[in-house]
From TrEMBL:
<keyword id="KW-1133">Transmembrane helix</keyword>
<feature type="region of interest" description="Disordered">
    <location>
        <begin position="509"/>
        <end position="530"/>
    </location>
</feature>
<keyword id="KW-0813">Transport</keyword>
<keyword id="KW-0812">Transmembrane</keyword>
<feature type="transmembrane region" description="Helical">
    <location>
        <begin position="213"/>
        <end position="232"/>
    </location>
</feature>
<dbReference type="InterPro" id="IPR036259">
    <property type="entry name" value="MFS_trans_sf"/>
</dbReference>
<feature type="transmembrane region" description="Helical">
    <location>
        <begin position="483"/>
        <end position="502"/>
    </location>
</feature>
<feature type="transmembrane region" description="Helical">
    <location>
        <begin position="316"/>
        <end position="334"/>
    </location>
</feature>
<feature type="transmembrane region" description="Helical">
    <location>
        <begin position="407"/>
        <end position="431"/>
    </location>
</feature>
<dbReference type="InterPro" id="IPR004638">
    <property type="entry name" value="EmrB-like"/>
</dbReference>
<dbReference type="GO" id="GO:0022857">
    <property type="term" value="F:transmembrane transporter activity"/>
</dbReference>
<dbReference type="Pfam" id="PF07690">
    <property type="entry name" value="MFS_1"/>
</dbReference>
<comment type="similarity">
    <text>Belongs to the major facilitator superfamily. TCR/Tet family.</text>
</comment>
<feature type="transmembrane region" description="Helical">
    <location>
        <begin position="180"/>
        <end position="201"/>
    </location>
</feature>
<dbReference type="InterPro" id="IPR020846">
    <property type="entry name" value="MFS_dom"/>
</dbReference>
<feature type="transmembrane region" description="Helical">
    <location>
        <begin position="346"/>
        <end position="363"/>
    </location>
</feature>
<keyword id="KW-1003">Cell membrane</keyword>
Length: 530
C-alpha cells in the first residue's frame, strides 16, 4: 500500500516498507486462520457424520446437517459483503467470526438432530462472512499489483484444508469424540478475533441509507431455491417432480424480482453497475465454471480411486495431493509473475486450456489406468485451477471502485459457490445414471438392485459384493467418471472463451510514475506496526 501513500511525502518512503510488511503479515495470519475455519468445517464434519448419526439418531435428516450449513452460507454471503461496504469491514468480519463460533459451540452441545441442523445453520450464517471478509480486507490492505505475493499463502490454506480436513476429522472423532469437530473451531477463532481486533485498523464507515431488506429477502429466497433444486434433484426427488418444478419456479421468480428491485433500491445489496465492467462479468462466469468443475472433480476422483483402483478410504484426502499440489505451485507462480510484471491475462487463458485438457484426460481413465497416470492427469487439472483460483478474485476486485470491494468479493464468492452446487448436482446426476445403466448391462437385475438406492457404495458395501458384481461396479464407476469428466471438459471451454475476452487493465498499486493518476489512487487503511 506504500506505493499509493508515499507519493505525497518523499521522506516517508524509506520507513514505510519496513513497517508495512510486518503488520500485514500479522493481519494475514488472522485472515488465513479465519479462511481455514470456513474451508475446514464441512470436510471435518463430513468425516464425523456416521458417528454423529450413531449418537443422535435421525438418519433420515442426515443430509440437512450439510444442506442447512450450505444454504445459510450461500444466502448470507452477499449480505455480509454489503454490510462491510456500508458500515465497515472490520466490524462485519469480527461479527461473522463471533456468529460462526457461537454456531460451533452450540453444534457441539446439540442433543438431537433437529438442534444440530438449526445450530449448523447459525454456523453457516457466520461462515458466509468469513471468506468474503478475508477477500475484501485483503483487497483493502494490499493493492492488486502486490496481492500476487500472497496468493501462494491462500492457495496453500485451501490445499491444506482439502487434504487435511478428512484426516483431522477422523483423528478428532476417534480420539476426542465428534463434538470436538465443532469445539476445535473455538480456540482457532479466538486467536483470529484477538489478532484482528488488536492489529487491524480500517477506516470506519457509516452509511445513512438503511439495509435493503426486500433485496435481502428476494436474494435469499432465490439462492435457497436454487441450492435446494441442485441438492434434491435426482436424489430426494426426481428432476421432473412437482417439488423440483415448484422450487425452480420460485427461484426464477425471486431472482428476476431481485434484479428488478436492485434498479430501484437506494442502497442495493448487489449494485448492478459492477456488472458494467466486462472484466468483472467475465470473472464471475469463470468463477462459476471453476467452482462447477473443481467440486465435481474433488467429489468423483476419490470415489474412482477407491472403487476402481482399490485405494484406502481412510486416506482419501491424500488421493487429491497431485491435483492440489499442482494447484498450489501454479498459484504461487501466477502470483509472483503478476506482481513482477503486472500482466495477468495469460493465466485465465492458460488455466482454461489446462482444465480442458486435464479433464479430457481424466475422462479416459478406466479400470486399467494406473495411479501414476491418474496422478499426472490430476496434476494437469490442478495446474489449470491454480492459474484461475486467485487471479479471478484479483481481477474482479481490480474492476470495481474501492467502495464496492465487499460486494465484488461476495459476488465472486457467491458465483463460485453456486457453480460448485450446480457442478455436484449435474455431474452427480450424469454419474449416477451412467452407473445404473452399466450395472444393469453387466449384472442384470442384481446390478440394478445393488445401486438402486445409491450409485456410490462405501468400502464396506463394496467388499461384501460377489466378485462378478464388484467387477461390474468397477466398470460402472469408470464409465460414470468418464461421462462426468467429459462433461466437465466441455464446460471448461466456457472458461477459455471468457478468458480470451478479458482486457488487461493495469493493476492498481503498481510502481509509482512521475505523473500519478488520481482515479487509480487507493486510500491505504492504517495498520498498526508490530
Amino acid at each position: 500500500m506504500a506505493d499509493t501513500q508515499t507519493a505525497k511525502a518523499g521522506q516517508a518512503e524509506p520507513e514505510q516498507p519496513e513497517k508495512q510488511p510486518k503488520s500485514v503479515r500479522v493481519v494475514l495470519l488472522a485472515l488465513m486462520i479465519a479462511m481455514m475455519l470456513a474451508m475446514l468445517d464441512n470436510m471435518i464434519v463430513g468425516t464425523a457424520m456416521p458417528t454423529i448419526v450413531g449418537d443422535l439418531g435421525g438418519l433420515e435428516h442426515l443430509s440437512w446437517v450439510v444442506t442447512g450449513y450450505t444454504l445459510a452460507t450461500a444466502a448470507s454471503t452477499p449480505v455480509w459483503g454489503k454490510i462491510g461496504d456500508m458500515y465497515g469491514r472490520k466490524g462485519a468480519f469480527l461479527g461473522s467470526i463471533v456468529i460462526f463460533l457461537i454456531g460451533s459451540a452450540l453444534s457441539g452441545m446439540a442433543q438431537g438432530m433437529g438442534e444440530l441442523i438449526a445450530f449448523r445453520a447459525v454456523q453457516g450464517l457466520g461462515a458466509g462472512g468469513l471468506m468474503v471478509g478475508v477477500m475484501a480486507i485483503i483487497g483493502d490492505l494490499i493493492p492488486p499489483r502486490e496481492r500476487g505475493k500472497y496468493q501462494g499463502m491462500m492457495a496453500g490454506v485451501m490445499a491444506l484444508a482439502m487434504i487435511g480436513g478428512p484426516l483431522v476429522g477422523g483423528t478428532i472423532t476417534d480420539n476426542w469424540g465428534w463434538r470436538w469437530t465443532f469445539y476445535i473451531n473455538l480456540p482457532l477463532g479466538a486467536v483470529a478475533l484477538a489478532l484482528v481486533s488488536a492489529v487491524l485498523h480500517l477506516p470506519k464507515k457509516r452509511s445513512k441509507a438503511g439495509i435493503d431488506y426486500l433485496g435481502v429477502v428476494l436474494l435469499t429466497v432465490g439462492i435457497t431455491a436454487i441450492v435446494l433444486v441442485t441438492t434434491w434433484g435426482g436424489t430426494e426427488y426426481a428432476w421432473t417432480s412437482a417439488r423440483i418444478m415448484e422450487l425452480t419456479a420460485l427461484g426464477v421468480v425471486s431472482l428476476v424480482g431481485f434484479v428488478f428491485w436492485q434498479t430501484k433500491a437506494a442502497e442495493p445489496v448487489l449494485p448492478l453497475h459492477i456488472f458494467k465492467s466486462l472484466n468483472f462479468t467475465l470473472m464471475s462466469v469463470i468463477g462459476f465454471v471453476t467452482g462447477f468443475v473443481m467440486f465435481g472433480a474433488t467429489l468423483f476422483l476419490p470415489l474412482y480411486q477407491q472403487a476402481v483402483q482399490g485405494a484406502s478410504a481412510t486416506n482419501s484426502g491424500l488421493l487429491l495431493l497431485p491435483m492440489l499440489g499442482a494447484m498450489l505451485v501454479t498459484s504461487m507462480v501466477a502470483g509472483r509473475v503478476t506482481t513482477g510484471s503486472g500482466r495477468y491475462k495469460v493465466f485465465p487463458v492458460t488455466g482454461g486450456v489446462l482444465m480442458i485438457i486435464g479433464l479430457y484426460l481424466m475422462s479416459t481413465m478406466d479400470t486399467d489406468t494406473t495411479r501414476l497416470t491418474s496422478g499426472i492427469y490430476m496434476a494437469v487439472v490442478g495446474a489449470g485451477m491454480g492459474c484461475l483460483m486467485q487471479v479471478t478474485m484479483l481481477v474482479a476486485q481490480n474492476s470495481v471502485e474501492m467502495k464496492d470491494m465487499g460486494v465484488a468479493s461476495s459476488s465472486a464468492t457467491l458465483f463460485r459457490t453456486l457453480g460448485s452446487s450446480f457442478g455436484v448436482a449435474v455431474m452427480g446426476a450424469l454419474f449416477n445414471n451412467r452407473v445404473q445403466d452399466v450395472m444393469t448391462e453387466r449384472a442384470g437385475a442384481l446390478g440394478k438392485g445393488i445401486t438402486e438406492k445409491s450409485a456410490q457404495l462405501d468400502a464396506a458395501s463394496l467388499a461384501k459384493l460377489p466378485a462378478a458384481a464388484r467387477e461390474a461396479y468397477q466398470h460402472a464407476v469408470s464409465a460414470g467418471t468418464h461421462s462426468a469428466f467429459l462433461l466437465g471438459s466441455a464446460i471448461a471451454i466456457v472458461v477459455l472463451v471468457a478468458a480470451v475476452f478479458v482486457k488487461e487493465v493495469p493493476l492498481r498499486g503498481g510502481p509509482a510514475k512521475p505523473s500519478t493518476e488520481p482515479t487509480d489512487a487507493i486510500p491505504a487503511p492504517a495498520i498498526e506496526a508490530v
